[in-house]
Amino acid sequence: RPAQSALGGPLPLPPARVPERRTPARCHAPRHPGRHAALHSGPSALPAGELRQPGVNRLTQTLVPVPLSQPLGGPGPAQLSPSLAAMSLQSSTPEALRVVNLLQERNLLPPIPIPPPTPCLQQDLQKINCNPEVFRSTLTSIPQTQSLLNKAKMPLGLLLHPFKDLSQLPVVTSSTIVRCRSCRTYINPFVSFLDQRRWKCNLCYRVNDVPEEFMYNPVSRSYGEPHKRPEVQNATIEFIAPSEYMLRPPQPAVYLFHSSTWSHNAVETGLPERLLLPGDSRTKIGFVTFDSTIHFYNLQEGLSQPQMLIVSDIDDIFLPTPDSLLVNLNECKELVQDLLKSLPTLFQKTMETQSALGSALQAAYKLLLPTGGRMSVFQTQLPNLGVGALQSREDPNQRASAKDVQHLSPATDFYKKLALDCSGQQVAVDLFLLSSQYCDLASLGCISRYSAGSVYYYPSYHHQHNPAQVECFQRDLKRYLTRKIGFEAVMRIRCSKGMSIHTFHGNFFVRSTDLLSLPNVNPDAGFAVQMSIEENLDDMQIVSFQAALLYTSSKGERRIRVHTLCLPVVNSLSDIFAGADVQAITGLLACMAVDRSATASLSDARDAMTNAAIDSLASYRQSVLSIQQPGLLAPACLRLFPLFILALLKQKAFRTGTSTRLDDRLFAMCQLKYQPLVYSMLMIHPALYRVDDLSDEGALNINERTVPQPRVLQLSVEKLSREAAFLMDAGTVMYLWVGRSCQPAFLTQVLGVSSYAAVPDNLHLLPELDTAESQRTRAFIGWLRDQRTHHVDESQLKPTFMQNMIEDRTESALSYYEFLLHLQQQISK
Fold first, then answer.
1. Which helix (H) or strand (E) covers residue 770, if one does?
2. Are 479 and 456 in contact (CB under 8 A)?
3. pLDDT tens figures, 698-740
4. Please, what sign has the CA dihedral across residues 490, 496, 502, 503?
């Protein structure tokens, strides 16, 4: 099907480039008149940035023209004078608005990773604004009105990484946490002090009194300067919460390990005998295994060895000895170690092939009911017995279908309902899927999604035949067991008056309109929200957003982590486009497309993503460009937008026409919804580097280690060379591509082999050689690894490596240039 575009219709290309083979069933005509392929949810039919299906009206809302010359009137916070109006972006054309003809300028990828745009704020405010790795907006200049936002055709939303590991985090211990009496916003750097005794909230503009205790600055040990306190000097801060922030005494750290007996090999290669889990003297631990029956383990202090207690009635689960199944880790450490030693051999000779996962999860839920905690589930097959039993829904013959993909939604609501029960009792479920068979991640993933857990997936896992997967699992598990954790957490996101949040993305349960229930929160979890403008922001110069995360630390402290982001308000389309954050827009659209794939269809989601690029570039051409020129034109800040959209269309989550296992697709969707933006962007558009000629020129010096900085290359086969070696960083995996005629120096001094033919087939870790070239290469890979939280292995999978060459044409998908021609044709219609 060479003539079929990845977008589902006949190609808009000259006949000489593509043979004419068209399939009428895949044309752009709407399948259901009046049904829009818009990624939307929320109050309005098509909020800003929503996407349309070809052949359907572009926008159903009436666009109200906004006078673009209207000044930014109205008084702003006292701290913000002189007026930001004097800082208009239009005084000179900024680099972000430089016109780029995408069809002519081919080498658009910057040589270094793309930094996020800087909001156009006063210098003193910008210095203390929130770190974009923690909190960033798709638009760094907020439109004054919803109609102006609609006209820009770009989505407005926030992307958060609220529990990120931070090297510097100010922590405040105070009996008085100062908050607005009206909207409950925490005092922050963007409030205004009318005088020493009064401050004005930057979200609702209420004037509040400054408490007496807040007059004293614990850092400078001075009195009478409340504006110099840490809470007003840091956009990210953590409070140790007093008793009024507790509904009950802080829970202990409770960990329950829950494994199918078929997983014993996985546990054998993963769980260390000495578990170094975050916690204190109250930390509790327990174990449950299952096949067609449920096995509990009595670890009561005083026993000479652990006791296995078997419950065979899976339809009426009960706890045989409720008080001795979850035990204090410090008091029962030896029994726990004995159990971890014996677990791998307990089921070595089992012939059991049944899996009562649903009943086992119900049992584990009962066990954690009194305390809450974290449940770690290791599963190796499709559950096939009792409640929650599933049947295979995948047809291997349909994996490469260019038609719509079926079964992206759960087969049963059992796992979602149980997850909501878990969430209500402060229990999060983390799922480790270690299987070479179909496991129905669409159904099983719900147990983690709605309980604020995580999903780990290892396809083709085998503890003997796949050492790379074992290594990956072990490193992931080590990070998982030792990383920071927050229990019984809730997160609330507030925004300035006139704005509203209408859709959340991530793993959580929405307890009320703006409150996310997070039984566990971890440093690797990301969130996104879509926003709309409900009231005109005419009298505002800035708006603010605040995320407050209340959690219990593993040491039993109740803490509140607060992030505050400040952005300017603008009244012209050119200013909106100048502040567009192309990576944040791509990340939010990916989340929206995952939802659309499940609620409508994969083809709807693909059409909608394509139209996101068409609509925004058409709006720019029609409403911002003063001189019309031929070609496909984009502002410099959006020059990579079509490339990223094409990358999404070719991503495992959304691609068609390429053989993709259903669970692989669903896991990619989970990652796009759950991962922080910095990780998901590498999944969407991997980074390619040449590594056989690394040098110290332009290198970074980090902890007395020299880290080379090779330039980022375009993802095209034409950038590869037989005489070289290349590293592709795709987020969760790195691929090392070695050319057949690669320099002998690289082979001997980095790979430790004498020739290309001697490169081992199962190379998944670079050897540690005492050569300058080896040290440089390992330093660079180590530096890349240090920037993420999960294990990354160097893999030799050539087909997958080539599938990530996004700019090249494949049998079932357009090349980047062909995609640009398609966009140009749609825009000029």
1. none
2. no
3. 899 998 889 999 999 999 999 999 999 999 999 888 899 999 9
4. negative
Cβ–Cβ under 8 Å, residues 451 and 429:
yes
DSSP annotation string for 50-107: ----TTS-S-SSPPPP--TT----S---GGGPSPGGGG-GGGS--GGG-EEETTT---
Q: What residues contact 797, with CB distance under 8 A and at least 6 apart?
A: 735
The reported pTM is 0.88
Do 289 and 343 form a contact (C-beta atoms < 8 A)?
yes
Alpha carbons 751 and 224: distance in angstroms, whole number: 64
For the segment 372-415, what is each residue's pLDDT rounded down to a tens digit?
A: 999 999 999 999 999 999 999 998 877 777 677 889 999 999 99
Instruction: Please tell me whether residue 717 adopts helix, strand or coil conformation.
Output: helix
Please state the length of the chain: 829
Q: Which two tokens stand for residue 640?
A: 């990579």
Spatial separation of the C-alpha atoms in residues 787 and 161, rounded to whole Å = 14
Residue with tokens 């749609």: 826
Q: First CA to last CA across the chain, in angstroms?
A: 25
Residue 567, both tokens: 């952005």
Beta-strand ranges (E) seen in 606-708 are 633-635, 687-690, 700-702, 705-707
Cα(409)–Cα(669) distance, integer angstroms: 12
Residues 320, 309: Cα–Cα separation, whole Å: 7
- Secondary structure E strands in 283-426: 284-290, 294-298, 307-311, 327-328, 373-379
Cβ neighbours, 10 Å, residue 633: 20
3-state secondary structure of 30: coil
- As beta bridge partners, residue 547 has 493, 563
d(CA 59, CA 48): 10
Taking each helix axis from N to C terminus, what angle separates 641-650 and 582-599, rounded to the nearest 10 degrees? Answer: 30
> Tell me, what's the pLDDT at 9?
34
Write the pLDDT tens digit of every residue in 555-567. Answer: 999 999 999 999 9
Residue with tokens 């013959």: 397
Please state, in angstroms and rounded to a whole number, the distance separating the CA atoms of residues 750 and 759: 11
Tokens of 812: 């079932």
Cβ contact 623:560 at 8 Å: no
The per-residue pLDDT for range 469-527, each reduced to its tens digit, is 888 898 899 999 999 999 999 999 999 999 999 999 999 999 888 899 999 999 999 99
- C-beta separation of 129 from 119 below 8 A: yes
Burial (CB count <10 Å: 0-12, 13-18, 19+), residue 630: exposed
Biggest alpha carbon–alpha carbon distance for the chain: 85
Contact residues for 365 (Cβ-Cβ < 8 A; gap 6+)? 375, 418, 421, 422, 425, 427
Report the alpha-carbon distance of residue 449 to residue 694 in Å, rounded: 42
Please choose, from the candidates 600, 22, 27, 664, the residue with its C-alpha nearest in 3D space to the C-alpha of residue 399.
664
DSSP 368-411: HTTT-EEEEEEE-S---SSTT-------GGGTT-SSPPP--S-S
SS3 at position 173: strand
Q: How far apart (Å, rounded) are the C-alpha atoms in residues 792 and 476? A: 9
Q: Residue 635's beta-bridge partner residues?
A: 99
Instruction: State how far Cα 566 lies from the chain centre.
Output: 22
- Please list the residues that pair with 487 across neighbouring strands: 520, 552
Phi first, then psi, for residue 58 (nearest 5°) are: -65, -45
Both tokens of 386, joined, read 């009792």
Amino acid making up residue 250:
P
What is the pairing mode between strands 558-570 and 793-795?
A: unpaired
